[in-house]
Specification:
This protein has helices spanning about 20-30, 35-55, 60-70, 90-105, 125-130, 135-155, 170-185, 185-200, 215-235, 250-255, 290-305, 325-330, 345-350, 355-365, 375, 380-385, 395-400, 445-455, 460-470, 490; strands spanning about 1-5, 265, 315-320, 390-395, 415-420, 425-430. By secondary structure, the protein is α+β, with helices and mostly antiparallel strands. The protein has 2 domains: about 1-280, 2-methylcitrate dehydratase PrpD (Orthogonal Bundle); about 290-430, 60s Ribosomal Protein L30, Chain: A (2-Layer Sandwich), CATH 3.30.1330.120. It is globular, with a radius of gyration of 22 Å.
């Protein structure tokens, strides 16, 4: 890996194009290096994972709206498929629909470092364009490897949330880079596309705070759609603002820290394999990633309390000692009253560790639908327990969160439960059971089981089998429409009727 120093440059400075971060990203995308078998296997896992969470969300209102928008853009030549239904549609609209379906339940893969990310968001736009161009599994694998590589390394090097910029600002460039690999574009064209994609996909984090709306699911899908359009324009000879990261009036200078900040972004050297996907991890539970280990911890502590004859009704307080990220994003450090509101949206509840821990501790489990039902959130005993939970930042947990030592890495928390009679029960969990360093790391069988569990009742068994066979044969697959998953008519009939839009 090469550690690139990225800072603001004044317009009068000599700053050759080849030194721009966007150009270095483009060089990585244009590098024809082979994809390792281990990486290809993980890409297959994540395609299965994305399909699993997509079919589970297809009949939800935000996803239904995105799907109907795509249905208003059918095509007779080229085009891409949309999760759940037959037909071919304009690739950028298919990417929007499928990206929204993948993101809606907050249930797919994650990578956490200086910034947050869901690298699986790269797959829908890359797959849509691959389908549109009639490309095969080998080409898709190469593209996805690039998308993950660029996003993971931007996430390692550049913190966005510190200045309230949403993490989709790393997704637009990574998708553009992946499309460059997919289409075997030249470095200059990819460079312009990366710049356009960043410029058009920068947004604030208000989408993940306050009255969190369905835009939380649309945001990455929109970034993917914008990246497709950016590539389309740059292939036609159009350009981008530059230097996009380093310019005097650019991203670092005015969206992030200031012209005084230097960021370090690692990228593969020429000829170096793209292996970043192996640093990422998926979710066993449908909730924000930093709640994965606390959910497993709460489930374990429920049994501990039962063994001790203790009742959650007698709890005086629960304090979760955790990292800066967890405390300020999904904990009480966010100073967000919606995170304690029984009437809050599902999107807000899955970003409230206080709610999540309360429900997991009471139920001894977690369900992607039942745990978020309005009646579940409004249960009086749950509300009472929920409001007794707080978070505090522990510097040691923050240090471990950012540690590169696998033996220290931690995304979890220590829970201190105090009862009315003064009894204290403590336990902690560093990483979720499904994490690569956890008690039960996810492997191919786990991804398949997750797909079948979420597809049950939604997708007929024969269709499940067909999709899983196609996905696992990705290296040899020539018709990428086989990666679509069709819902049965009974499932599709559950989708709500949504108001008409423009088209």
């Amino acid at each position: 890996m090469i550690e690139h120093q990225v800072r603001t440059h004044k317009s009068a400075e000599d700053f050759p194009l080849e030194e721009h971060l966007a150009y270095k990203v483009a060089q990585v995308a244009a590098d024809p290096v082979a994809v390792d078998d281990e990486v290809a296997d993980m890409i297959i896992n994540r395609i299965i994972d994305n399909a699993a969470v997509a079919v589970a969300s297809v009949t939800r209102r935000p996803v239904t709206s995105a799907r109907t928008m795509a249905e208003d853009h059918p095509v007779t030549e080229g085009g891409a498929s949309v999760f759940g239904i037959d037909g071919t549609y304009s690739a950028e609209w298919a990417a929007l629909a499928n990206g929204t379906a993948v993101r809606e339940l907050d249930f797919h893969d994650t990578f956490l470092a200086a910034e947050y990310s869901h690298p699986g968001d790269n797959i829908p736009p890359l797959l849509a364009v691959a389908q549109h161009k009639g490309l095969g599994g080998k080409e898709l694998i190469r593209a996805v490897a690039t998308g993950y590589e660029i996003q993971v390394n931007l996430v390692k090097g550049i913190c966005l949330h510190e200045y309230k910029i949403d993490h989709v600002a790393h997704l637009g460039p990574s998708v553009a880079a992946g499309l460059g690999t997919l289409l075997e574009l030249d470095t200059e064209t990819i460079y312009q596309a990366v710049g356009q994609a960043l410029h058009t996909t920068t947004a604030t984090r208000q989408s993940r705070k306050g009255l969190i709306s369905s835009w939380k699911a649309y945001a990455p899908a929109f970034a993917g759609k914008m990246a497709i359009e950016a590539v389309d324009r740059t292939m036609r000879g159009e350009g981008a603002p530059a230097p996009i990261w380093e310019g005097e009036d650019g991203f670092i200078a005015w969206m992030l820290h200031s012209p005084e900040r230097t960021y370090t972004v690692p990228l593969p050297a020429p000829g170096e394999a793209k292996r970043a996907i192996l640093d990422t991890y998926t979710k066993e539970h449908s909730a924000e990633y930093q709640s994965q280990a606390p959910i497993d911890l709460a489930i374990r502590m429920k049994q501990t309390l039962a063994d001790k004859g203790l009742d959650t009704a007698d709890i005086e307080s629960i304090v979760l000692h955790t990292s800066h990220h967890t405390h300020y994003v999904i904990g009480t450090g966010a100073n967000d009253p919606q995170k304690m509101d029984p009437q809050a949206s599902r999107e807000t509840l899955d970003h409230s560790i206080m709610y999540i821990f309360a429900v997991a501790l009471q139920d001894g489990g977690w369900h992607h639908v039942d745990s978020y039902l309005p009646e579940r959130a409004a249960r009086p005993d749950t509300v009472e327990l929920w409001h007794k939970i707080s978070t505090v930042e522990d510097p040691e947990w923050t240090r471990r969160y950012h540690s590169h030592d696998p033996n220290e890495k931690a995304f979890g928390a220590k829970a201190v439960i105090t009862f009315n009679d003064g009894t204290v029960v403590e336990d902690e969990m560093a990483v979720a059971n499904a994490h690569p360093l956890g008690a039960r790391p996810f492997e191919r069988d786990n991804y398949i089981a997750k797909f079948r569990a979420l597809a049950e009742g939604q997708v007929d068994p024969a269709e499940q089998d067909r999709f899983l066979a196609a996905a696992q044969n990705l290296r040899e697959l020539t018709d990428l429409s086989e990666l679509n998953v069709r819902l049965n008519e009974a499932a599709l009939a559950q989708a709500p009727n949504t108001p008409e839009g423009l088209f």
